[in-house]
TrEMBL record:
Domain of life: Bacteria
Domain CBS: 355-417
Entry protein name: Magnesium transporter
GO cellular component: membrane
Native source species: Cellulomonas cellasea DSM 20118
């Protein structure tokens, strides 16, 4: 067990690997849960640990035997019930970092940049120190970051409890910088609505667009509705057209129309086309931006296109070949070229010689079941969608099909969802907290 007096800074603890006593990895620390009390130092009661399956669970600090550099050792008994924050609980990374507090000596305001928890002789962990940065009135956020830093006792500040004041999110996002969009979406989903909107405002448009695509519909609508209108339109432009169309479909007709008018005409055109299709059809599922190239394109150039970082893996599995124009709706659709086939041929060869013309294209009104059967029958990750003149309208990818086949609330990760086996023992009963 960590000895009394052990001090741990939470911002540095985030991302640390958690092991069981025999050395098997359990997960990674994502946050620390504290109870902010009216009097006395806030008490730290547990860790939020991300385990395989992207589930976040609660690990009581009473089951932590050691916190050392780069690792946390638990007893090996991990409750796999999804962590649900109680109203009395506060997340250090999610809610306390960047919080503005008042220095008790009357010298002004400061922003919390880190929180130190310390183990007492009783075995309890409490918030003992705060690393804060003085805020200079009237200065920009950038200049405020250059203010004097102080390590103070938790009793030397006021306002650490729940505050209605706007709160920054830069330090929280820095702690979660390594997270994939789906994982950051989980973090935002677990936050309260006010804090979630603060974090969303702090994200750049591209990152926020990626995260929105991974959130449940209710969260998407709440976040987008909380943005200034022109910024909301910019974020929609950064999203995949099919995801943007799905989100706009959840808004009122008036809101959707307003945002479409604010979007760039070309981006809005694709989204409007998708909104015209029924949800559970190929047209409603497809994206209008697969990789589309002419038959004369070299294999080397085609491979450069599928290496794009913003391209989903399913859409990177093949190139769609058509006659000009190469933007949807294209000229006559010829066929597809599979990534594996291109990797087996000389880079200077043209993709026109490798086209697979046997892939069944589907019309825009093809039902979800037909699309699913074709993807499964031919082991495909994407399927072309064409009109009556065999012009390519877009492509349906397997991830979009799964989104519609799974239960509507699948992103909630219910507690009965099976998880991959780990070396740690697990239990599904509720863990007593606080």
């Amino acid at each position: 067990m960590s000895s009394a007096g052990t001090r741990v800074f939470v911002a540095r603890l985030a991302g640390t690997t958690v092991f069981d006593p025999i050395g098997d990895q359990v997960g990674r620390v994502r946050d620390v849960v504290v109870l902010v009390r009216p009097t006395g130092a806030p008490r730290a009661v547990g860790l939020v640990v991300e385990v395989p399956g992207r589930r976040r669970v609660f690990l009581p600090l009473t089951r932590v035997t050691s916190i050392d550099a780069g690792q946390v050792i638990s007893t090996g008994l991990v409750n796999m019930r999804r962590f649900e924050q109680r109203t009395s609980e506060t997340l250090v990374v999610g809610e306390l970092l960047d919080r503005t507090v008042e220095l008790s000596d009357g010298s002004g305001s400061a922003s919390v940049e880190d929180v130190a928890i310390e183990r007492q002789r009783s075995g309890d962990w409490v918030v003992a120190k705060l690393f804060v940065r003085r805020l200079v009135p009237g200065k920009s956020a950038l200049l405020r970051r250059r203010g004097e830093t102080l390590l103070v006792d938790v009793g030397a500040v006021t306002g650490l409890g729940v505050s209605a004041a706007a709160q920054g999110a830069a330090l929280m996002l820095a702690s979660y910088e390594d997270l994939k969009p789906a994982d950051l979406a989980d973090v935002l989903h677990d936050l309260g609505s006010t804090r979630r909107n603060e974090v969303a405002h702090a994200l750049d448009n591209e990152r926020l667009a990626d995260v929105l695509e991974e959130l449940p519909e209710d969260d998407q609508v709440a976040i987008l509705s909380g943005l200034e209108r022109t910024r909301a339109a910019d974020v929609l432009e950064a999203m995949q057209p099919d995801d943007a169309a799905d989100l706009l479909g959840e808004l009122s007709d008036e809101q959707a129309a307003e945002l479409l008018e604010l979007m760039e005409p070309e981006e809005a055109r694709d989204v409007r086309r998708l909104l015209a299709y029924e949800d559970n059809t190929a047209g409603g599922l497809m994206t209008t931006e697969p990789v589309i190239l002419g038959p004369e394109t070299s294999i080397a150039a085609a491979l450069a296109h599928v290496r794009r970082q913003d391209l989903a893996p399913a859409l990177a599995s093949m190139v769609f070949v058509s006659r000009p124009p190469l933007e949807t709706p294209t000229g006559r659709f010829i066929g597809v070229v599979h990534l594996q086939r291109m990797l087996r041929e000389a880079p200077h060869e043209s993709i026109g010689s490798l086209v697979d013309t046997d892939i069944d294209a589907v019309p825009a009104d093809a039902p979800l079941l037909q699309v699913t059967r074709l993807l499964a029958t031919y082991n495909l990750l994407a399927l072309p969608v064409v009109d009556e003149e065999r012009r390519l309208l877009g492509a349906v990818s397997v991830d979009d099909v799964l989104d519609h086949l799974l239960p509507q609330d699948w992103r909630e990760q219910h507690d009965d969802t099976p998880l991959p086996a780990t070396g740690a023992r697990t239990v599904r009963g509720r863990v007593r907290r606080g």
